[in-house]
């Protein structure tokens, strides 16, 4: 595992929209086995940065991916777990349909091959999902179930970078803790670099290894402990008034 | 080739309505078009594009007008060309994100319709072309049936190769993009397929009702289906059933085939709607 060199380097990433600058000159690295927490106030550009990394919005600057051998890869596989997946809940798509359609081969409207279904079942098991979820419509899943399915979806094929947007609205507190336990165990097992957008400093302190405070650009970055002590973070989260992080 | 097919129809369907060769041709056309509509309709409904396919139907009038002005005998070429241009324009304006999708489509739809009416009425009276509004499936020619079969095969092949990507893009484009799917390409490909099948069949189904045939079977299937497989199977089955039964009913009642087919599909929709409601309440 120590020989793994996969990493993502972000250099001078700038996003402009309608003459306004949303992100300016963002640079940082995330290496294998790291959970890098991206923190900042609402509208700081966290989600924009994730979308830029996904190639969904135009940006200037460079994002370079390296695989486990340290070679540069041009077509990186990115696992993406959105905070709240926006989709048509009445669509007749089962979890099995969704997972199998990502595995290539037979089009899911013709049905599923047994091996593919088994593969999907295994995938669900790695994120602690019940195999019975396979036949459920994705629109009928609870927030916590959906988060697991999305995580399973993100993990196959094994990504070069995992982007997690913290589930806040759809999942209860207990569900969030289960989610983070999963992420932490995946980090130990797969050693892939993880960028985590979080809105909760206590989660960041508990689970992340490094942190980046974003407000249109990188204000502070470093180890979680260092970043938490900086006046910028204390100001951004209004900690001066409440007396600090518990 | 056709005589063998006619012979088979005579042997297996020895009814009064199959005696005439125009009815045989119409039956064959229905057997080819309706599964196609059921298949493609599933994703039109999933992608909330029913208004879009309607606009494409309207654009066909302008396509015909362009054909008339250019002196082309076969309007199919000008219709297809214009519909493709039209579809890609709508899609490009939608990508720019300046107005909401329904507004943009509404603007294009009315423009396509109005331009068609103006151009056609200028070149010698609109009445001559009013047949395109409701279409006539009984005018299908044997050589056109061959073309329909070709399109059915082509779309089925595309549906086999690209469906998984189409589905993921339709669930959520960001999620699909994270898997390296070129969502723009997939969306454009789908738009081109819809434009192609709408223009090819407009002559027989008509500008006014073509969209109902694309949307109704899939909309009914959505009320009943559990997953993608049953969604497709049910949509195709409903589409085929309403097509064939509508054709037969229209023969005996002397009504327009297109309208009769749509009415049957609509009845099935309401039936599926109430079935779904009843199931949800239990």
Automatic annotation (TrEMBL), chain A:
It comes from the Bacteria. The keyword ATP-binding applies. InterPro entries: AAA+_ATPase, ABC_transporter-like_ATP-bd, Metal_Ion_Import_ABC, P-loop_NTPase. Keywords: ATP-binding, Nucleotide-binding, Transport. Residues 8-240 form the ABC transporter domain. GO terms for molecular function: ATP binding. The keyword Transferase does not apply. PROSITE patterns: ABC_TRANSPORTER_2. It holds the Pfam family ABC_tran. This is Metal ABC transporter ATP-binding protein. It comes from Caproiciproducens faecalis. The lineage of its organism: Bacteria, Bacillati, Bacillota, Clostridia, Eubacteriales.
Automatic annotation (TrEMBL), chain B:
InterPro entries: ABC_BtuC-like, ABC_TroCD. Pfam families: ABC-3 (PF00950). Its main location: membrane. It is found in: Cell membrane; Membrane. It is a multi-pass membrane protein. Keywords: Membrane, Transmembrane, Transmembrane helix, Transport. SUPFAM superfamilies: ABC transporter involved in vitamin B12 uptake, BtuC. Belongs to the ABC-3 integral membrane protein family. The chain crosses the membrane at residues 26-44, 75-93, 105-127, 147-168, 189-210, 230-249, 256-275. The keyword Cell wall biogenesis/degradation does not apply. It comes from Caproiciproducens faecalis. The keyword Membrane applies. This is Metal ABC transporter permease. Signal peptide: none annotated. The lineage of its organism: Bacteria, Bacillati, Bacillota, Clostridia, Eubacteriales.
């Amino acid at each position: 595992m120590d020989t793994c060199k996969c990493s993502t380097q972000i250099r001078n990433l700038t996003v402009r929209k309608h003459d306004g600058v949303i992100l300016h000159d963002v640079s940082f690295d995330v290496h294998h086995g790291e959970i890098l927490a991206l923190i900042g106030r609402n509208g700081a550009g966290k989600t924009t940065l994730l979308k830029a990394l996904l190639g969904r919005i135009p940006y200037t600057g460079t994002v370079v991916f390296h695989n486990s051998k340290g070679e540069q890869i041009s077509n990186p596989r990115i696992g993406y777990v959105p905070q709240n997946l926006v989709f048509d809940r009445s669509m007749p798509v089962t979890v099995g349909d969704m997972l199998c359609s990502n595995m290539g081969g037979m089009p899911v409207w013709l049905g599923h091959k047994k091996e593919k279904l088994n593969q999907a079942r295994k995938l669900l098991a790695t994120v602690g999902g019940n195999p019975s979820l396979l036949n459920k419509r994705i629109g009928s899943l609870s927030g916590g179930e959906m988060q697991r399915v999305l995580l399973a979806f993100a993990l196959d094929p094994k990504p070069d970078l995992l982007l997690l947007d913290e589930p806040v609205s759809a999942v209860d507190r207990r569900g969030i803790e289960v989610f983070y336990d999963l992420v932490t165990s995946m980090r130990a097992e797969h050693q892939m670099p993880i960028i985590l957008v979080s809105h909760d400093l206590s989660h960041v302190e508990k689970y992340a290894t490094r942190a980046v405070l974003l407000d249109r650009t990188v204000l502070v970055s470093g180890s979680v402990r260092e970043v938490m002590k900086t006046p910028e973070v204390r100001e951004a989260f209004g900690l001066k008034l409440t007396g600090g992080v518990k | 080739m056709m005589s063998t097919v006619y012979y088979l129809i005579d042997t297996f369907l020895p009814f009064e309505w199959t005696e005439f060769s125009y009815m045989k041709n119409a039956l064959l056309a229905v057997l080819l078009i309706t599964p196609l509509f059921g298949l493609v309709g599933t994703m039109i409904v999933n992608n909330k594009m029913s208004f879009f396919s309607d606009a494409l139907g309207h654009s066909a009038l302008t396509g015909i007008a362009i054909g008339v002005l250019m002196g082309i005998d076969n309007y199919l070429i000008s219709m297809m060309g214009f519909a493709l241009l039209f579809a890609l324009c709508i899609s490009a304006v939608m990508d720019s994100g300046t107005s909401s999708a329904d507004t943009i489509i509404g603007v294009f739809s009315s423009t396509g319709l109005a331009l068609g009416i103006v151009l056609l009425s200028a070149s010698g009276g609109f009445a001559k072309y009013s047949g395109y509004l409701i279409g006539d499936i009984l005018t299908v020619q044997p050589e056109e049936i061959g073309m329909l079969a070709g399109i059915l095969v082509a779309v089925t092949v595309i549906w086999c190769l690209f469906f998984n990507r189409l589905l993921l893009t339709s669930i959520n484009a960001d999620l699909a993009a994270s898997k390296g799917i070129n969502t723009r390409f997939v969306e454009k490909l789908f738009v081109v397929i819809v434009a192609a099948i709408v223009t090819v069949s407009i002559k027989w189904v008509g500008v006014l009702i073509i969209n109902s045939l694309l949307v109704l079977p899939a909309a009914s299937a959505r009320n009943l289906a559990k997953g993608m497989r049953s969604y497709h199977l049910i949509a195709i089955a409903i589409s085929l059933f309403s097509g064939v039964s509508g054709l037969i009913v229209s023969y005996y009642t002397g009504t327009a085939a297109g309208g009769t087919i749509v009415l049957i599909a609509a009845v099935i929709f309401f039936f599926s709607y109430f079935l779904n409601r009843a199931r949800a309440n239990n």
